[in-house]
Specification:
mainly alpha
Length: 53
């Protein structure tokens, strides 16, 4: 799950650098770092969910 999530977020970051996504908070190319922060949080959450069982 974390590998798929990492790939999707990385793909979104690359697309955002070429053409901004236009979502709230992601209007400029320089906002791609926000996707990286989101990715770290989601991967930490996925890892905690899978190892918490």
């Amino acid at each position: 799950m974390t590998k798929i999530l990492a790939f999707l977020i990385l793909a979104m970051m690359m697309v955002h650098l070429v053409k901004p996504l236009g979502l709230p908070g992601l209007k400029r190319r320089a906002d791609f770092w926000k996707l990286a922060v989101l990715a770290l949080g989601l991967m930490a959450l996925a890892a905690a969910a899978s190892h918490g069982r």
